[in-house]
């Protein structure tokens, strides 16, 4: 397929899960892909498998993000597609959540998108076009016990995508958020394990009632590629929920 032929895409958090699924689909559909992740072994293996370019970076550290974008641009070209996917989770009762937890999660889930977008956007503006997708979550609008901090960061991601869309619409840049429900990935399974520890019902039966089943990484990736593609040329500042009705209940 040539859906993204001649385009360069950068995927942060692309070494595993939905990020890796997006990398595979982007390459299969013609894009040259830069994978940025701190999971070096997984990232290099994926890059070798599909023919992508891997750069190891901790997205919570601005200097590493900027260096990674410079490295990838020199090796592959200027990205005009950006999947801001990197993120993590803290699951704790609110009164057990520490200032260190707050700083860590804000750095990984929010500041990383700020820094990554600032690093990539000038190239998009020079090219006169660009599409950005930020991974948010159902947690931006559907609060869960023991996830106050996570919910706050995903709410910030929601508004970040909207604000970028509004500021850069007239310069050919689109920015949207993809918002998965519970995903069958290491991240998603860890979330379920931690929530269960704190007495939140995320049993198979509960998830089935909320969203039918766990979402697959490929389902998130497919939705993301739609938002990155010209098929979504008039979709800007939107939140696409990939949750099988969870937030519609």
CATH fold name, please? Rossmann fold
Which percent range fits the helix content? 40-55%
Give the name of the CATH architecture: 3-Layer(aba) Sandwich
Q: Count up the domains.
A: 1
Report on the architecture of this protein.
By secondary structure, this protein is an alpha/beta fold. It has a single domain (8-183, 218-242), classed as NAD(P)-binding Rossmann-like Domain (Rossmann fold). Helices cover 48% and strands 15% of the residues. It is built from eight helices and seven strands; from the N terminus they run E-H-E-H-E-H-E-H-E-H-E-H-H-H-E. The chain has helices spanning 17-28, 40-50, 62-76, 99-127, 148-168, 186-197, 204-211, 217-228; strands spanning 8-12, 32-37, 53-56, 81-84, 130-135, 173-180, 239-242. A seven-stranded parallel beta sheet has the order 3-2-1-4-5-6-7, with helices on both faces. The longest helix has 29 residues, at 99-127. The radius of gyration is 17 Å and the shape is globular. The N and C termini lie far apart (37 Å). The model has no long low-confidence stretch (mean pLDDT 97).
